[in-house]
């Protein structure tokens, strides 16, 4: 393992003689040179102030379930708190257990607030730096359980704990990295020319606006689209006139963030239109940027507004797996069948993203998503739910252990609620099933208004067969 990996994973540094030590802070005299010069401190002062203002531990604690703060305190042990090599502020005598996976969705949701973008960038840097330093080769001679123990102790693949982000030494190292990698505006940046939205405006001169115009072939705005936006800190989905859209105008999506390269892909088209397939890469400057997503005629040759509700689904010739009221997963082979009032609303198949089917009856929806993964089923489920929580800010996922009923054949069930833009409170439950042979997991998500009992008969009108070949053989 190289010295940089040792430094990242242990928290230790070398003095001028090459001796390793644990710094007491960014101004430890044993450091060969200051991490930041006085001029660099001046240049990064605004970014530092942003991060410190966005990292409100009381605000974060308010988003956690009542039992979690006590468990986080337990990890730090008894005062006086001591920073140690490798484990940092965490007491190594206290078992971590499942807390990292339970904690991750809540941190992700907290960081997804657009007013915490600077903090989100900082947390992503912390995560990526440890992942890049991971001694994966060290696991070659270990069994999987031992390897997982090593990764857990080193915090590889886990989110930063609150004390990791408040550590003064780590913060200064991030500021040094951000300055060296062009992530700091060293001169005052002009306010974007696009008028800021009151819902997303942070008042920061470092923020910019990406404007996405969604129109038909004649230039008429089309409402209801969703886009997936990839930035260096991660990927988010923003839907027209929903929480992260800074514009209240249908067909106009405004996304606020730092200047940089954005990749935009439409993942839900306006009703009656086909998805704009190409990925747009756009350089967002301090003055903002804009792109236009033009939608031609509907995919079945019908002009969009007159098309059927499910006309966004490509034809069976495009290997989507739809044939009548039956869907066969192109990559995994499981089968979903349905009866009225269910209709397919979205179906995709991609070697990277897996197979996805969404059925709807109006307000009620069911989703099936299978993808290739090397993770254990429960871990994959937790990662999947964390992503859904990230795209539905403000939710509080609740975990249920395996048991009867909905999750009888699944390792766990997650449920949470969130409020749509129209004020309707939605409830969501997600479970997972193996699709066998290490090929991945199948996520089944039920989404409905929280005050809607959704009679069981409605869900009985949809059936799932994970392995139709085995089912046929068993019937014979």
Describe it.
This protein has 476 residues and is α+β, with helices and mostly antiparallel strands. 26% of the residues lie in helices and 24% in strands. It is built from twelve helices and 20 strands. The strands form five sheets. Strands 13-14-15-19-18-17-16 form a seven-stranded antiparallel beta sheet, with helices on one face. A four-stranded antiparallel beta sheet has the order 5-4-7-8, with no helix packed on it. A hairpin with a 5-residue loop joins strand 1 and strand 2. The radius of gyration is 24 Å and the shape is globular. It starts with a helix and ends with a helix. The relative contact order is 0.08.
Summarize the structure.
This protein has 476 residues and is α+β, with helices and mostly antiparallel strands.
Distance between the termini: 57 Å
Structural shape = globular
Considering DSSP H and I runs of 4 or more, what fraction of the residues is helical? 25-40%
Strand content: 15-25%
Mean pLDDT: 74
Strand arrangement across the biggest beta sheet: 13-14-15-19-18-17-16
Assembly context of the chains? single chain
Largest sheet: 7 strands, antiparallel
Low-confidence sequence ranges: 186-206, 298-319, 469-476
Structural class: alpha+beta
Number of helices: 12
Question: Radius of gyration over alpha carbons?
Answer: 24 Å
Feature tags:
alpha+beta; four-stranded antiparallel β-sheet; 476 residues; 20 strands; disordered C terminus; seven-stranded antiparallel β-sheet; globular
């Amino acid at each position: 393992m190289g010295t940089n990996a040792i430094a990242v994973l242990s928290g230790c540094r070398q003095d001028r003689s090459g001796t390793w030590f644990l710094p007491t802070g960014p101004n430890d005299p044993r450091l060969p040179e200051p991490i930041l010069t006085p001029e660099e401190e001046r240049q990064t002062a605004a970014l530092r102030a942003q991060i410190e203002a966005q990292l409100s531990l009381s605000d974060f604690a308010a988003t956690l379930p009542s039992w979690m703060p006590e468990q986080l305190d337990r990890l730090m042990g008894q005062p006086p708190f001591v920073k140690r090599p490798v484990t940092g502020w965490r007491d190594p005598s206290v078992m971590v257990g499942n807390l990292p996976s339970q904690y991750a969705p809540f941190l992700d949701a907290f960081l997804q607030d657009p007013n915490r973008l600077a903090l989100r960038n900082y947390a992503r840097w912390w995560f990526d730096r440890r992942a890049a330093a991971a001694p994966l080769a060290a696991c070659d001679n270990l069994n999987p359980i031992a390897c997982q123990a090593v990764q857990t102790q080193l915090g590889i693949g886990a989110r930063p704990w609150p004390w990791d982000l408040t550590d003064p030494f780590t913060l200064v190292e991030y500021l040094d990295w951000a300055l060296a990698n062009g992530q700091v505006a060293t001169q005052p940046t002009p306010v974007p020319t696009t008028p800021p939205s009151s819902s997303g405006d942070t008042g920061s001169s470092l923020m910019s606006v990406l404007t996405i115009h969604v129109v038909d072939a004649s230039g008429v705005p089309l409402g209801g689209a969703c886009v997936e936006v990839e930035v260096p800190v991660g990927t988010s989905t923003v839907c027209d006139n929903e929480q992260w859209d800074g514009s209240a105008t249908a067909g106009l999506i405004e996304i606020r963030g730092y200047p940089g390269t954005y990749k935009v892909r439409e993942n839900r088209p306006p009703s009656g239109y086909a998805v704009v397939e190409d990925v747009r890469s756009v350089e967002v400057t301090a003055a903002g940027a804009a792109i236009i997503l033009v939608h031609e005629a509907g995919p079945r040759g019908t002009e969009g507004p007159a098309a059927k509700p499910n006309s966004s689904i490509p034809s069976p010739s495009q290997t989507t797996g739809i044939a009548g009221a039956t869907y066969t997963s192109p990559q995994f082979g499981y089968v979903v069948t349905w009866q009225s009032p269910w209709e397919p609303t979205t179906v995709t198949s991609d070697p990277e993203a897996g197979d996805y089917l969404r059925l709807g009856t109006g307000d009620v929806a069911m989703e099936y998503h299978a993808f290739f993964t090397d993770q254990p089923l429960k871990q994959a489920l937790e990662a999947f739910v964390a992503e859904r929580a990230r795209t539905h800010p403000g939710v509080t996922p609740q975990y249920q252990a395996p048991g009867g009923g909905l999750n009888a054949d699944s390792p766990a069930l997650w449920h949470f609620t969130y409020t749509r833009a129209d004020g309707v409170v939605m409830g969501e439950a997600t479970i997972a099933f193996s699709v066998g042979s290490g090929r991945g997991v199948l996520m089944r998500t039920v989404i409905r208004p929280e005050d809607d009992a959704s009679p069981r008969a409605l869900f009985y009108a949809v059936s799932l067969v994970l392995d139709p070949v085995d089912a046929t053989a068993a019937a014979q």
